[in-house]
Structure prediction request, 563 residues.
Amino acid sequence: MQAFDPKTLRGDLSAARFEPGPTEDKLILSMGPQHPSTHGVLRIMLELDGEYILRAEPILGYIHRMHEWMAEQKTYMQFMPNMGRVDYLHAMAWNWAYAGAVERLSGIEVPQRAEYIRAAVTELNRISSHLLWWGAYLLDLGAFTPIMYAFDDREMLLDILQDVTGSRLTYSYFTIGGVYGDVPDNFASRCLAFTRQLRSRLPMYRDLVTDNVILRGRCEGIGEMDVELARRYGATGPVIRGSGAPVDTRRAEPYGVYNRFDFRIPAYPQGDAMARYMVRMDELETSCDIIEQAVANLPDGPITAKVPKTVKPPKGEACFAVEGARGKIIVYVRSDGGPKPYRVKLRAPGFSNLSVFCELSRGTLLADAVSILGSLDLVIPEIDR
Amino acid sequence: MSLEFVARLGAVCSAPMDPAATGMTVSVTLTPETIRDAVSVLDAEGFLLEDVMASDIEEGFEVIYHFSRLDGVSRVALRLTVPREAPDVPTISAIYPGADWHERECYDFYGINFVGHPNLHYLLLPEDFDGHPLVKSDKARKSLADLMPLSYLVDCGLAQPEAPKAKPAVVKPAKNDA
Prediction:
């Protein structure tokens, strides 16, 4: 029998490629893909000196499904359900980005009622995404109770969305030219009841969690990033807003009816994990503001434009950017005039946000790297696509 | 938005785009030799890197870089085409480190070789995967003339503007007032 020699243990191809550094006493650690703090199936190769991270390299692709290839095989409408499965936590934003890109390319005008419904359900979905992030992030940091409260709030929200869309998670509610079905009569009153409940809960969350000294200790001064770094990496959403730049696609290039809503864009200049946390907590309130304005002004009228059964946009290309819960979502569609897209590119915000992690985690404690990873709010299916 | 920086990009041609119809402000065509200088100009202008993507067309692989300013509608598309037999493009990951993964993704799907890239191997596909899935078959491939609207082709000198159709002379039958 061969003698056990740790030097011959090279692992798989990804591990073999991750060359150990020049010194002997460094530890190469493969964190994930089943590690609870990697939320799904992300794997990170780490080179450690004791508890300190010298180098980190995420390994992606465990749930890669090649959505962009599927897009080229399907008609424009048939690809719609895929969008609910790219980012399962903020499916509505992806719905909107794809529908918007095709509408922009075909010159389809969306009816006003559909635009208001789109804004309302997208913001409801954003709240459910942020609440799940909040619960799961605190779970990563060792606090068990908050996720129970988050799921309690989320339950009410998912019931509303289920009555509207028919599904609870992977929505494909948008169609090209509008939305798939009208909202029930009690939609406005249920939305208002929900925002009332969430607003009454937020002070408790602040007292119980946000002002908690242990959370502050785990988040403040951890993973600091300035606007320049975020810009060079293409980090967007709450990540760049946590670096002090109030960058929001809803304000920068308003789509739908967002230019009619009065809402503020929270931004915190510290650039650490706590700043990103605070941005998301404030966004729960701004989303409530938008929902209240949208359901109060919901006009009557049709919910879809007149769209031919087979959508054939004229030849050309179009980008459509949407502010998702994680940042700037862009869908690029290129048409050759036929019934199927020639090329669809999905720009996932989490992809760019995660690529900053290598830089942020260098020199930190392993436990802090978990805090940084959570503060980036990753959804792996979106990153892998 | 000021577009004065476009003149400094060393473009082969630049075509203004309609933001309402395409989501872009300007499309700038470059060559692989000039891409790094152009991207440096955008970096100095404070642009954010959105993505790097590719598309398989008859002329070769078209690589498209999307940039935007932090505020306002100002998406800039830089594009260049490389032959399918030798798809070599200089990497921009030294200027925008975020391009590192986007370029690896283009390598995954099309096999584009980003010259100077520090770590060019499969990102999303398995390490032992063979091939590049988004490369089209000869039959499915279309040329730029079939993919872009006429106004873009005219701006890039790829087509002649359509002459306004001369109205067919209507010859009125002479009134026969007998």
Summary: The first helix of chain A runs from residue 13 to 17. The mean pLDDT of chain A is 87. The two ends of chain A are 44 Å apart (CA to CA).
